[in-house]
Amino acid sequence: MSEFKYEIKKSVGVFGETQNGWQKELNIVSWNERSPKIDIRDWDDKHNKMGKGITLGKDEFLKLKELFDDVDVSALG
To answer: How far is CA 17 from CA 13, 20, 53, 69, in A?
Structure first.
């Protein structure tokens, strides 16, 4: 398995916590010294370990933001 680098450029916020105490976070992250992306995933308290997540470019994020605005949250229960 090849190593990869990451740098959290900005912590946007925490929006949940898993059963093992990791936090669900929205961050701006640079992966392998590339352009920063929006990143949603679980992190341990020191940001040394991470869970599976999703990384979005600017255009993908803007489209997802539009879709979120159209969600009828009352349908979620």
So the answer is: 12, 8, 14, 23
